[in-house]
Every structure is written in structure tokens, then in C-alpha cells.
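Hi there, hope your week has been kind to you so far. Thanks so much in advance, here it is:
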Amino acid sequence: MTTIDALQSLRPKAEWSLKVDGTLIWHDTDVSAPTQSEIDAEILKLQAEYDSQAYSRARANEYPDYRDYLDGVVKGDDTQKQKYVDDCNAVKLKYPKN
């Protein structure tokens, strides 16, 4: 996570710019600029949230195509539907929630 992510999270509608050297220029007169401590804490929070969802991102890449299940529904093919469910459960076992 970056300072930009933190600023967008902390003050989503505020106007600001960030120089290449990392200097924050606060343009918004209606919203106060966050302190560096607030920015640092938000970066840590956002990173922790991102890290806690690693299993979800991994699962998304390996789940079978939902159209396989729907095809089984249309055809009335219980074996095909069960294979889809079994494949999904295998992915969930491979990447458990934290």
C-alpha cells in the first residue's frame, strides 16, 4: 500500500497532490490534511486488510467456471453439477480462510 492509497482512504473527496519526492501538497480548504502518523497507520491497516484476503484472491483464480454448473442445471445433469461443487470445495480446502 502507498501514501496515495492511504490518502484516498482517509480523505476520499479531498484535493491534494503528491510530489515525486513524496511531499504532500494539500489543496483542500474544507478538509484538513491527515498527519503523517495517520497516513502511516492507514497504510498498515490497508495492507493488513489486503493480506487478510489473500485466500480469496487465490481462490478466484482457481474456481471452476460457473457456466459449467449452469450447463449442468440446463441439462439436468446431476453429475456435472456435483463435479462443479466438488471442484469448488477442493479450492476452498486448498486456500482456507485465515
User: Anything to note?
Assistant: DSSP finds five helices and two strands in the chain. The first strand starts at residue 16 and ends at 18. The chain has two domains: 3-52, 55-94.
